[in-house]
Sequence to fold (168 residues):
Amino acid sequence: MFYTILDIPPGKIFLAKTDKGLSFVTFMKNQGKFKEIEESFKKEGIPLEVDNTKFKVEEKLFQRYFEGEKEDFTSLPLDFISGTPYHRKVWLEARKILYGKTDTYKSLAHKLNHKGYRSVGQAMNRNPLLIVIPCHRVLGSDGSLTGFGLGLKFKDYLLNLERGDTPT
Fold:
C-alpha cells in the first residue's frame, strides 16, 4: 500500500492506494494521527510505503476541491480494502451525490431498497475515503447536520466550500 501526505488549506490529508486504486483518505488532526493510521494498517498486515509520485492526479484533484472548484472525484478508481458488501453498496450510492448537493440517510436507504436508514449512517461512519465518498453530503431527514467523524463544524466547512460560501 502506497501513501502520501498532502498539505491542503485546512491541514494535512493522508492518502493510501494500491495499484488498483485509492483505498483510504483521512485528515490528520495532529502528528499522532499518522502513528494511529500506521498501527491500523500494521494490525491488518498491510505494509505502508511512502511514494509521493503515485499521487499526482489525487493531489491535483484535492487542490482543485479545496480551492472551491467543482470536483467530484469520480474519475478516481477505488480499491476498497475494508467494509462489508453492504457498506460498499452504501458508499457507492453516496458517491453519486453531486458536488454541492445533499441527500439524507433515509433517502439513501430507500435508493438501496433498505428499510433501516440507521445502517446507512453506520456505513457512512466507516467510510474509508473521506470527501471522495462524500459522506459530508449526507444529512438528517430534517436537513440537519448529523454524524461526522471529524465533527459537525468540519462537515459544515465542506458543505459551505461546495456551495461557494466562504467557509467558516
User: Anything to note?
Assistant: The chain has six helices and six strands. Strands lie at 2-8, 11-17, 22-28, 49-50, 103-104, 138-139.
